[in-house]
Amino acid sequence: MLQPGDTIGILGGGQLGRMMALAASRIGLKSHIYCPDPNSPAFDVTAFHTCASYEDEAALEAFARSVQRVTYEFENIPAPTVEFLKARLPVLPGDNVLKTSQDRLTEKNFFASIDIPTAGFYDISSEQDLRDGVAKLGLPALLKTRRFGYDGKGQVFLKNEADLTGALDAIGNQPAILEAFVPFEREISVIAARNEQGQTVSYDIAENVHKNQILKTTTVPAHISPEVAAQARQIGEKVAQALDYVGVLAVELFLLPDSFDQRLVANEMAPRVHNSGHWTESACLVSQFEQHIRAVAGWPLGDTRRHSDVVMTNLIGDDINAWPKHLSHPSSSLHSYGKSETRDGRKMGHLNQISPIKGD
Amino acid sequence: MLQPGDTIGILGGGQLGRMMALAASRIGLKSHIYCPDPNSPAFDVTAFHTCASYEDEAALEAFARSVQRVTYEFENIPAPTVEFLKARLPVLPGDNVLKTSQDRLTEKNFFASIDIPTAGFYDISSEQDLRDGVAKLGLPALLKTRRFGYDGKGQVFLKNEADLTGALDAIGNQPAILEAFVPFEREISVIAARNEQGQTVSYDIAENVHKNQILKTTTVPAHISPEVAAQARQIGEKVAQALDYVGVLAVELFLLPDSFDQRLVANEMAPRVHNSGHWTESACLVSQFEQHIRAVAGWPLGDTRRHSDVVMTNLIGDDINAWPKHLSHPSSSLHSYGKSETRDGRKMGHLNQISPIKGD
């Protein structure tokens, strides 16, 4: 268990690392950001940072000596980096979690192993596998690389037989997974947290809308029944418990139409704070960022209750240029990530707009 | 007007500077802390800090070159420091404000000049003045140094004639002010903000309870009528406008019993974010800290509305040792200032506890 004034090392210097560091400061912990990018926005909010590659063992060694625990803002940390650090101090969440979530196939098998439903899936290593998979799952379907995909990168939508030609080339002939297309009604997500004492909590369920495969808005409460909401929270907490998880995680779920027996299927998990939890900053007293830091520190988790309804809107690319308007928006809070360069599709900030909780 | 990514210089590295820097980060601004104390808690939350005396002109020169605007967390900055900096870049709030608020007599005269009632007061430079003052104002009364007093330091309570003997010695024979004792029913405060465009806002009125002359709790809403609350907000906004103020300020007010014609009298003002505004962090979307940074940046002010009722409790000295309990408290948010040393009477953190807004 950390003591006040201790330092948490954070791998990754993007907006998630930045928001974790800000949350750590609020509860009296220091942070040290490690990131190879000299323009990391998280470098601006801490006294300590290391700008070095994830393979630089001298830098990693010095980093490990300067902090008491390590966490991360992204799941694609090179395995040797984690190995190196965990030989020296706790790295949380643990590497069992990274192994599960870095590979879509392993992740789907994990969901199956704890009876969390997913869309049908098929392991793809060859053209023959792809044909077999399509024969089994039908079309349309999604072909995705097993590793290193995010925001729609590394995936192909297969609508008809003709789309199979060249599909494996399009994703670089990497090990892949074929996923049955699910005619979902809504996309929702659950943010759960667990600490090393086993205390497990979750936030209210969020409803997400994507645009060009990037999250655009998150609305809480989601337009779902209390029963579905309770099931979704149970899924988040079950994942955390099954993995002996320490920290915050997100599980993205599809809500299927009423005509399906099983209405919730897990899409994927993220072993970290998640864009669909940014609303917690403005509608809860303890945000997902603070919750994650508490868990990593071995501290008691905080109250996850919501004081307000909320809509989070991502500010992507040029959206941020209207910042004076966003600052003036009633009942709204702008969070700007301090990125030095605006690019198309780049997450630059978000706007949380709250309103009083509506009665059921 | 600052641009996103610009840097605000903050004089003073205590908890107020720290919370201002955290708020600046949220809206995409950098900060640079200037403080002579090597253990300044604000140093931990920014990439840039200068540890040097307020008289070190080389350090001040380098500081001035590295930031676009300067603000401060305390009103007792040496006048030559402000002179030096304001010759180079904007220092906000302006030095007219510091001149007014650094001297209790000037401040009381300023209140009088804009028709804001205060307790009776008398300028004291000698034993004779003290006797004349007591003859005019009666006893009990308070003898206070004109400058450099805070948290009850530099003041003596005069209950009866015998207390006059040695009273001036007790405050170091400095220029002083005698203030009539006011039989107040409650202590309240208003937090107001104004930007350089003249936009002026205020927060809901807070009720304060002191213990050993240090703020212990702030409760919002205060137990006052809507009319008194409206008057108090007007006082805050009037002060901001009269001073062409840029930033956040607090005015502490006494509420007199119903039997008095004039129920509100101003006690003192603070030209900065204020302990009695820490509740805004948890009960409003835009805290006093962010509001101050917005004003100093020349940016639009934010919504001051409250989404919750709230009680802020200061954690003083050993109170912070119960941090695991504070972290677990329902509907509560702990803010810990990251101070390396706990001392009696030292403000170490605060706890905000919220509840749904009660109907009138």
Automatic annotation (TrEMBL), chains A, B:
InterPro entries tied to this protein: ATP-grasp, ATP-grasp_carboxylate-amine, ATP_grasp_subdomain_1, PreATP-grasp_dom_sf, PurK, PurK_C, PurT/PurK_preATP-grasp, Rudment_hybrid_motif
Biased composition (Basic and acidic residues): 338-347
Segment forming the signal sequence: none
EC number(s) per entry: 6.3.4.18
SUPFAM superfamilies: Glutathione synthetase ATP-binding domain-like, PreATP-grasp domain, Rudiment single hybrid motif
Pathway: Purine metabolism; IMP biosynthesis via de novo pathway; 5-amino-1-(5-phospho-D-ribosyl)imidazole-4-carboxylate from 5-amino-1-(5-phospho-D-ribosyl)imidazole (N5-CAIR route): step 1/2
GO terms for biological process, alphabetical: 'de novo' IMP biosynthetic process
Enzyme category, top tier: ligase
GO cellular component, one term: cytosol
Catalysed reactions, semicolon-separated: 5-amino-1-(5-phospho-beta-D-ribosyl)imidazole + hydrogencarbonate + ATP = 5-carboxyamino-1-(5-phospho-D-ribosyl)imidazole + ADP + phosphate + 2 H(+)
Location of the ATP-grasp domain: 108-297
Summary of the function given for this chain in its UniProt record: Catalyzes the ATP-dependent conversion of 5-aminoimidazole ribonucleotide (AIR) and HCO(3)(-) to N5-carboxyaminoimidazole ribonucleotide (N5-CAIR). Catalyzes the ATP-dependent conversion of 5-aminoimidazole ribonucleotide (AIR) and HCO(3)- to N5-carboxyaminoimidazole ribonucleotide (N5-CAIR).
Family to which the UniProt record says this protein belongs: Belongs to the PurK/PurT family.
Name of protein: N5-carboxyaminoimidazole ribonucleotide synthase
Originating species: Cohaesibacter celericrescens
